[in-house]
Amino acid sequence: MEKNQVIFAVLFATAVLVLLAGFLLFFLVRYRSRSNQYIRERENLKKEFEQTLLQSRVEVQENTFATLGQELHDNIGQLLVSAKALIGVTQRNLPCSPETLNIAEETLGKAINEVRSLSKSLDKEWLQQFDFINNLQTEVNRINAAKTLQINFSHPEKLLLQPEEQIILFRIVQEAIQNSVKHSHAQQIDISASHSVSSLIISIIDNGKGFEKDLMISSGLGLKNMKHRTQLLGGTIEWISSPGNGSTVILKLPVKKSEP
Amino acid sequence: MKTIIIIGFIPTLISLLTVIIFYKKLQPKWLQLFFYALVFTLASDIVSAFYSQYFKKSNHFIINIYLIVNFSFYFLIFSKAFETKKLKKIIYTTFIIYLLFALYDIIFIEGFYYFNTYSYCLGGILIVICCLLYFMWLFTSDRLMNYFTIPMFWISTGLLFFYVGSLVLMSLMGYIIENHLDPAGHIYQFIMVTLNVLLYGSFTISFLCNQVWKKTR
């Protein structure tokens, strides 16, 4: 074999091998791009499935709330009304109605009102008639009327959210208020809703005893529920709290300007 | 000739400068080992080039030492890059096989002062296998990833091109030298400079894509 032929063979074999390696890599990269697309599609499907699952879970909860509200109104409410009517009859039959009976009648009246507002706030149809601001304002007024704590609510004229989204948001805020009242023993709660360029920010700040963050997560204060509902709205939720310093819940939800 | 040698240093130098500039930001941390490897490569290249130029003697013994250290370094990098124990074990086994054979080649076959073609070919083939294993692991992964932002993807690409490309030349090196087929070394220089550009170019990209990679993690 001539010298030049050997050198040519070396150069040719080297070039062929490098090209082969290049082709191999090219096909692997192309194959992987397709797999990436498949993985992306699979993740999207999984996300959609989780979203649907969350939606149905919330719907089931809403239906449970509605049934509970109905039961409160139709059964307990009616029983209380009957009891109040019986007390009224007794009062009328007595020449001088004792003070304790008057107080019992008054307390029963209050209980009937409480049950009515509570069943209203659990009723989905009732919620759909009003927007978030009206609903929450009614809830705030109901709690403020009891005079055990003070809730301040500041809000824009209207929220840029769909009615069904407003229901979910209302449930989140309801849960946060309940936590502040029951677990934090707060005296004052400040709720504020405001719009930024592309989001709605809601903060619920209380002056209660506060929590250790780890304890908060493990204590089952309905945080999971709140988180799920926020996810359903495509937003984020954050808890800031430490013992003795109250607690703050910050909700950030995406909004479209065209929404009602 | 001297110009070609100098051109051959440029990709290594650029790679070294990149690793120095991004040294603290390099992630994963084992990428910092490239600084020492590149300094060693550059030093070996300069020493071997000057040794043959000024003493007019064969510099093959310097290259033999360099190759053992260099191959060991690449095996170390692969062992760091692989996440599964099984693949790590394969790399360790491969490294031991290479090291034992390289010593056997020096002691019993080609000797210390003659270019160790056999151990180069074995080392090259093993590195190519490691690259293919890495690609297989990367491309069959269930994770969604942009591999162009993964440093090890570029390192493996460079190594694959370099060793696939140099295997033919290096396996015939003894034959070429004995028969004076490339007396001026032009073919050797042309192939090696081209492959060096590909290898160190890929290394440089791997250090530069690092920041993007960190963000995607």
Average predicted local confidence, pLDDT of chain A: 84
- Multimerization status: heterodimer
First-to-last CA distance of chain A: 86 Å
Number of contiguous helices of chain A: 7
The SS-based structural class of chain A is alpha+beta
Q: pLDDT below 50 for ≥5 consecutive residues: which ranges of chain A?
A: none
Number of helices of chain B: 9
Globally, the shape of chain B reads globular
Mean of all residue-level pLDDT scores of chain B? 88
Strand and helix map with partners:
The complex is a heterodimer of chains A (260) and B (217).
Chain A: H1 3-93, H2 99-122, H3 124-129, H4 132-145, E1 150-154, H5 163-182, E2 188-195, E3 199-206, H6 213-218, H7 223-232, E4 236-241, E5 247-254
Parallel strand pairs in A: 1-2
Antiparallel strand pairs in A: 2-3, 3-5, 4-5
Chain B: H1 2-21, H2 33-55, H3 60-81, H4 85-109, H5 117-139, H6 151-171, H7 173-178, H8 186-208, H9 210-216
Helix pairs in contact in B: 1-2, 1-8, 2-3, 3-4, 3-5, 4-5, 5-6, 6-8
Characterization of this structure:
- The complex is a heterodimer of chains A (260) and B (217).
- With 260 residues, chain A is an alpha+beta fold.
- Chain A has a domain at 131-260: Histidine kinase-like ATPase, C-terminal domain (Heat Shock Protein 90), CATH 3.30.565.10.
- Chain A contains seven helices and five strands.
- A five-stranded mixed β-sheet of chain A has the order 1-2-3-5-4, with helices on one face.
- In chain A, helix 5 (163-182) links the parallel strand 1 (150-154) and strand 2 (188-195).
- In chain A, helix 1 runs antiparallel to helix 2, helix 1 (3-93) crosses helix 7 (223-232) and helix 5 packs antiparallel against helix 7.
- The longest helix of chain A has 91 residues, at 3-93.
- Chain A is elongated.
- Chain B is an all-alpha fold.
- Chain B has one domain.
- Chain B is built from nine helices and no strands.
- Chain B has helices at residues 2-21, 33-55, 60-81, 85-109, 117-139, 151-171, 173-178, 186-208, 210-216.
- The longest helix of chain B has 25 residues, at 85-109.
- Chain B is globular and about 55 Å long.
